[in-house]
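Researcher: Hi, I'm a grad student and pretty new to this. My advisor asked me to get structures for two proteins we've been looking at. I'm not sure of the right format, so I'll just paste the first sequence and hope you can take it from there.
Model: That works fine. Here's the first sequence with its structure tokens right after it:
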Amino acid sequence: MPELPPVIPLFDAPQHLEEGNSLVNQHIAEVTLNRVADAAFLYEHAMDWLLENRYSENNYKTYRSELTTFLHWCFDVEQLSPVALGRRGIQRYVDYCLAPPPALTAYRNVAQFVLDKDWGERRPNPQWRPFLGKRTDGVPQPYRLSDKALRTKLAVLSSFYAYLINEEVTERNPAVMWMRHSRFGTGPTPAGPVGEEEEVRVFSDLQWSYVMGTAERLAGEQPERHERTLFLVSLMYGCYLRISEVAARPGFSPVMSQFRRDGKTGIWSFHIPVSKGGKRRTVAVSRELLAALQRYRTYLKLPPLPAPNDNTPLFVRHRAAGRGREQGLLNANLGIRQLRELLDELMAAAAEAAGADGFEQDAAEMRSLTVHSIRHTGITHDINDNGRPLSHVQADAGHDSIDTTSQYLHTGRVERHESAANKRLDRLKP
């Protein structure tokens, strides 16, 4: 076993990040199993956030260093999920960073990962430490964190929490809360709830019809690739899923037996064993989604419906991986990035189809939407078009509060305009 640093660096350089690292994966899996149930879930989100910032070298380095330190403190020191933290939790983290353990301070800057030539893979550098101290005349000085560096730390954390809010992983930004009550007085503005500013994140009825119509067309033209896409988008929309809830990650591989039939009622549901905050939930499955499942499984040459012990991966790779920890594996479950690529391809094709039919403005709006808009759209349509009770949608969406669910009520400007278009100013005037 190679020598490891006292804190495992979690994120390699951007050109290596997506390859995966066996030692990091092992560490995250151990934390998930023994200390923090949603550690792997949040680690995948952290990777996605970093990948969004990979084209700015300075930002990437700053962000990954802060995330590594913060997640180490959460997972290893406090043994708490980052989404469980409030303002006092951030204060404990600040106190930790102001006086870190001496063993975690280095006095020269070294790479977080190095190439192990014997093993042929990159490994955590045993010389790396999360804190960097200074020397005076060659003598190590006590570690000090300047106000400027502290502000940077909290700004990075605030941006990360804003990303998690946008992905509906959490509903609060404790870094902003701490800044507002600290001696710094003010901090970054947190991301707000789903509402006016989130309008563009929901597909209109017309736009969504192009998404589903395009998925059907692609599945007919290239079934070997897009039968999978058609079922993926149907599942994401029908169960309001976050992409992380159907993607493989360290410690979790989604399988067919997550579709379950109640023996007494005959009703089918989709079980999510680990989601936001380490919680689990069961989502009701509609008749159309059940039919979509049967179509997908029939294409895969499986029985139409899964048995309770069916461990077939939910979304499998059609070509063997060329790199990373699953190199050469064909039927490995797809991760967040691979699933997102499939959905991005679908949404781009749907926007192109809408534009070709003369709906240029709709096409432009569709190109601005994200994969997470599929979840927003499913919730919005069910509440405003299908008339499902808020409490039912809240349970299926996994919202902590009915207030979160109620924010989807009539949030669309188009729908509000249509409902107001025929209002009379003088109800007695002919």
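Researcher: Oh nice, that was easy. Here's the second one.
Model: And its structure:
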Amino acid sequence: MQKADFIDRIVIFVKGGKGGDGSASFRHEKYVPKGGPDGGDGGNGGYVFLKANPNLSTLLSVSEKKKYIAENGENGKGKKMHGRNGKDVVIDVPVGTVVKDFETGEIIADLDKPGMVVCVARGGKGGRGNIHFKSSTMRAPKISERGFEGEERKLVLELKLLADVGLVGYPNVGKSSFISKISNARPKIANYPFTTTIPNLGVVTVNDLQFVVADIPGLIKGASKGAGLGNVFLRHVERCSVIAHIVDISGIEGRDPVQDYFDIRNELEHFSKELAQKEEIIIANKIDLISKEELEKRLEKLRKETGKQIFPTSIITGEGIEKVVYKLAEIVKESKKFHTQSEVVNEQIKRPKPLWKELPERFNIEIIKEGNDFIVTGTYVEEWAKRLNLNQKDGYRKFMELLEKNGLESKLKEAGIKDGDTVWVAQRAFEYKE
């Protein structure tokens, strides 16, 4: 048994992997002095996915890491060998997670069924190798493309309140103490839409299973008619797997635990037949306050009157607590298995097309003058500079040809360039010669 925090809203950063660069390679074979181009393409960058996992009940495990970045694609190689695609990142989140874009607030997905998968960041497409650039005028192209950057974004993950165990009982029977004992519950979790009371929630981890325990405060005589907490919160726990009913077996406040049990059951019946029909265990708390003989008598009476399984506990000493928690975990696991089998979507991971942008060969060039320096810029100037490997002779030549085709010379003259001035293109400096 392990304690866990309840975390219901987090912000994470996700980024798809960059595509690998294409290769500018040539065949090297015996007796073939001038082999043709054989550079392969770069692999696509990995993707980032979210998947609804029915075994999780909190965003705690996701919150432990703030950035999720998929692997980059491998660069292409000679002999027309394409680079390997980058590995994907699959983030498991609880069922009921709503995914929003941090900047716009747009809802990207509502993962409300087990097995649902959504792609939240695409990888970049790999760059083309030099086999794609061979032409009648360029038989041995020393040119290849760089891979495209992956998609990146900030996400808000919000978890709808989904309780697995509904805790009921009269005030002062030890419900809040029970939740505190088995989890790292905070007194206030979030601003839920309830008028008088904030639900007390805790998350428990047993082996690979996480489950949420929610106190149902205000469930006393008249609660089903709107007294105390009212109906709003109760609707949230109607999907729970089990009701854990705590009674004060010691009766030190002068109340009869058996009568208390039936009072609460009556309210449950009035409020929701569905909730009242859930599997139920009875936790007989405060066993440390009475003698063993008296305890046995009271436990026997409670068993006989209710026909339910009774778990004697002392939240103060811890006696019996672990046994209760493992029983709750067993019931929740079975219930989740049933719901998973009936609701599971089991979506296959589908990759949309990787990120890639076709760049136009006709585009606008801007010239910024700073003293005797003339900076060549523009949206597509920058993007072509990123796309082509300017360290390659033919890559740089193609880049400059594109600029000339789009009027670089005339734009420089319009800006007032003179012989000997400095031209900056893609972070490279040249002396202008008329």
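Researcher: Is there anything I should tell my advisor about the second?
Model: You could mention this: The chain has three domains: 9-159, 165-336, 366-432.
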